[in-house]
Amino acid sequence: DGPCRSTLDVAIRHILAVAMPHFPELKDARFAEWWAHCRPHASGHQMHYDSDNEGIGGARHPICSCVTYLEGAEDLGGPTLVTTQRLGDICGHLEAIVA
Question: pTM of the prediction?
């Protein structure tokens, strides 16, 4: 709460407003985490679960995860892979979305 202190604050609040109807639990959210990448094309990123402190001490996952591309040249970066896999899944049906 409080006034926006940066353009990033404005972006986070907009994403929250868009996500809230789909994730009502966000009304109880107290924090937003953000990070950015600036890597050479096709350098990739390791597969991971969104989890507090990289899962050290047990997995604590966010209410909602969002990938937002603010700006970028067409020849930079690549798609983002999101799956339905859950921590502890051994095998079975897996859906994937590439955006």
Answer: 0.67
pLDDT value of position 20: 94
Give the pLDDT score at 27.
92
Residue 26 CB contacts under 8 Å (≥ 6 apart), including other chains: 16, 19, 20, 63, 64
Picking from 70, 69, 47, 51, the residue whose alpha carbon sits closest to that of residue 61 is 51
**pLDDT higher than 90, residue 23:** yes
Q: Which residues pair with 98 in a beta bridge?
A: 81
CA dihedral 43, 49, 50, 54 (to 10 degrees): -90
Does the pLDDT of residue 41 top 70, yes or no?
A: no
